[in-house]
Amino acid sequence: MEIWRWVFIGILFLSDFVVKIEPFKLGRSQPTERISGSAGDVLEDDPVGRLKVFVYELPSKYNKKILQKDQRCLNHMFAAEIYMHRFLLSSPVRTLNPEEADWFYTPVYTTCDLTPNGLPLPFKSPRMMRSAIQLISSNWPYWNRTEGADHFFLVPHDFGACFHYQEEKAIERGILPLLQRATLVQTFGQRNHVCLKEGSIIIPPYAPPQKMQTHLIPEKTPRSIFVYFRGLFYDVGNDPEGGYYARGARAAVWENFKDNPLFDISTEHPTTYYEDMQRAVFCLCPLGWAPWSPRLVEAVIFGCIPVIIADDIVLPFADAIPWEEIGVFVDEKDVPNLDTILTSIPPEVILRKQRLLANPSMKQAMLFPQPAQPGDAFHQVLNGLARKLPHDKSVYFKPGERVLNWTAGPVGDLKPW
Amino acid sequence: MKLSALHQSYLSRRSNSFRSSGPLDSSSDTGYKSPAAVFWLILHGLCCLISLVLGFRFSRLVFFFLFSTSSSNLYTPPFRSAVELAKTLDVQSVLSSSPFANNLRLPLPNKTATNSRVVVGRHGIRIRPWPHPDPVEVIKAHQILERVQKEQRLQFGVKDPRAIIAVTPTYVRTFQALHLTGVMHSLMVVPYDLIWIVVEAGGVSNETASLIAKSGLKTIHLGFNQRMPNSWDERHKLESKMRLHALRIVREKKLDGIVMFADDSNMHSMELFDEIQNVKWFGAVSVGILATSANIDKSSDQEEEENPIMPIQGPACNASSMLAGWHTFNTLPFAGKSAVNIDDRLTVLPRKLEWSGFVLNSRLLWKSGEDKPEWIKDIDKLDGDVESPLGLITEPLMVEPLGSCGRQVLLWWLRVEARADSKFPPRWIIDPPLDVTIPSKRTPWPDAPPELPTKEKPETGIQESIVKHTTKTRTSRSKHRSKRKHETRTDTGFDKSF
To answer: pTM score, two decimals?
Structure first.
């Protein structure tokens, strides 16, 4: 009789598992599908308890004073570095005891030196970063212990830690030599590129969650736009002939599809931009001067299938989110056949992608809400950091062992900040 | 570390300064450098001048065409560097770096495997040979959109939508095609099952039948053996009778769905059909009244100088969203100035409550009442005229207000008709085609002869003025006679077609 009781309990357990595999309905909203990337079903993992982060107390000239000089840094697409700092200060993963910390965070806002137009200038950023690292290596012993292998930095600029907005110059500079061993959390991701280090965590660019929430329209509004895009095709100021900007891909989209009624593309910026995205089936996310853009975040939030036109791009949280199943990837050389590619996708596949996009954990993972909510991008970063634990014993140096060259890099970087 | 060699090659190719190309120069053959270098310098200068004239970077284009590379080829970086550097200061590095880079390639066969296929620099803009939409693909895209919208409706729209039974009273007249086509097109786009009951005054006719056959909807075409009278009062009464006749058919055939009254000159929005799915037994929606207020504006100019508010007929709710009464049309301002006959050019007024503002569940009309409420009267036992659907029920407060308690106007009422004696070609097909176009009374045709031909007998009112004109002129009588013969021939032709 005892055996039968255990068998019964065992069957209940198994049925529990079986039920989880099927797609589940969430209350009144549409049926969604579970998202499982190469790291498994990890979007809803809770990082609390799996890692401890120590936040260095840097003098305010590295963070607060810069922000005070220009408040626009809180709203532009590089604002993740500021919000991450704020999140970590009050997060349960924060520890005040550096001896038990698994990861060390340096709050330095390198992308907050803005032009009058609002674009960040990266010219002083290497010096700022270098100065911050010099500070932490002289005031705390933890940098020298591993030469930064258990430290992480947020570098959300165009080409990450290469600290330049022009790709050729960024490649020339390469990643800042001092950050060679640290983990970089950045928005830039392109395979086989100098500015993408092995083991970096790719995050989505910052998009203001409140603003997007206020522009939601009823879900039963029929999606009547086939392909939607708003943005530049030719950067007339910097590249009037075309061919340089976006590697010619955006110009190719314009030239091939400007008279196609299925493609609602233009350079005008309407006030109903967010609403229009919710009425579209496909949203183009082509590369610009850098391969990443906030359009991906907007497309995911508004349920529009992203069409990613950027060769070799690495998308945010690629190990947790199966982007191949959610978006459509088009090679830059296939842009002239974009209409054929999109119309030949079977409707069932399109409906499946829409279901995956409707999953609230997917939308949460792309956002940086204030205050932080479970499953959002902050937590995904922490999950990514937790997945890299435990640190390999080889990263810990014996005293006296050195790898980093503190004088490497362009001469201009060595000047104090 | 592993990319440092690549770094070097990049640096060598992209450097502008003479300094870095110094060591490279020494590695290459110095002998043939000078004449070739001079040649490049001259070419460079020439390109500069041409660019100045043309206004864009000419030299890059030349090199692009000369080498005609594709951007994703791994082995084009040396050529690409030629393109990049054509305009840069250091021309020598072009020569020196190409052999250098060529030499660089060979000892690194495994490095190229990790090389990105993405190359920085100027790329061509790919345009396909015929960059215009392909109709087959447009159709496929529309099918995809339809499927997506169907899925959206399944998930977010009305659950278990019921069929819609639209009742339309009509009769043959000039504006019938205009009005009926409008209603027909609206009904064709409705995403739910639809049965269209068309009741025609004066019996079933080919005109109406041919019009509604184009719809592709399930139609029931009924004839009503009474001609439509000329006064609006009588017309409204007859329409009510026709609608009741349709309701009797619904009861006979036990049609299941939601009955709505789609008068042929009304305008319906698609949200109306979504909203009426929410009705349980008997519902009311707000109707916007588009009474032509051409005469009323003059008198009420002092009161309403801003946009005059459209009068609305429909349910009125109290604070707790329960039905409290009705908004009806205020006929006082129009007293004495409203149209009496159909062809009066005065404002046409609606009834107190129009039929089109009400919807009912067809099960209310069935004989066998499963859970039919008691406040519905039996239509077979109705005697006398029913002016509005409220006459069908005993308790008016049981009506459900729809459209967020009447705040949404979902359809608009309008009555526009042509003169009673206006004629139109049957089915709007002019057969046989006209040989001659006759100028109408009002259009001053610039090249038409000033005298219009006389008529023996005025066929229509339009011809009256022509007679008047001809009595005045006397000069060209001979022209008249010949013209008259010609005209009479065509006139007879005219008679036949009309």
So the answer is: 0.70
